[in-house]
Amino acid sequence: MNKTYSAKPAEQKRKWYVVDASQYPLGRLATKVANVLRGKHKPIFTSHVDTGDYVVVINASKVKVTGKKAETMVYKHYSGYPGGLKIETFKTVLGKNPEKIIIMAVKRMLPDNRLSAQIIKKLKVYPGVEHKNEAQKPETLKF
Fold first, then answer.
1. Which of 3, 33, 79, 91 has the most crowded Cβ, counting Cβ within 10 A?
2. H, E, C per residue of the chain
3. How far is CA 31 from the centre of its chain?
4. Is 60's pLDDT higher than 80?
5. How far is CA 71 from CA 16, 75, 88, 102, 125, in A?
6. Taking a C-beta distance cutoff of 8 angstroms, is the pair 87, 76 a contact?
7. Which residues pair with 58 in a beta bridge?
């Protein structure tokens, strides 16, 4: 009989990928990036081990959304205090901090457990074309 393979954290070989956010809608980009970060694209995927790769997202300031989402989508944050609800629209967040949009979209597609905090650290997001990870020689992620 064959035994079930379980990936070990010390044996992981991680690759680097680069994605252009201006080419894909936000939701489609976030799902593909989340799957690569988790390692679901690999045959050795194990749900309780971080088997994923690094992803660099460029052109975050040019991210696209479909329909009227640019005007209607809102981001809420509640501090827990009375009057502590902060509401920002998609356009204002895109103007102030475009990286936050992609990080939040990808983070919400990851499972809600302790492993997701470790997984999200492998995501690097930059507002323009230039990024600091050229030395890792990232491959273009196609989907």
1. 33
2. CCCCCCCCHHHCCCCEEEEEHHHCEHHHHHHHHHHHHHCCCCCCCCCCCCCCCEEEEECHHHCECCCCHHHHCEEEEECCCCCCEEEEEHHHHHHHCHHHHHHHHHHHHCCCCHHHHHHHCCEEECCCCCCCCHHHCCEECCC
3. 8
4. yes
5. 34, 12, 11, 17, 23
6. yes
7. 20
Lookup result for tokens 């030395």:
135
pTM of this structure: 0.92
CATH of domain 14-64+98-140: 3.90.1180.10
* pLDDT, the chain, mean: 95
Q: Smallest Cα–Cα separation from 75: which of 26, 124, 41, 42?
A: 26
Q: pLDDT band for position 114 (50/70/90)? A: very high
- Domain spans in the chain, listed from the N-terminal domain onward: 14-64+98-140
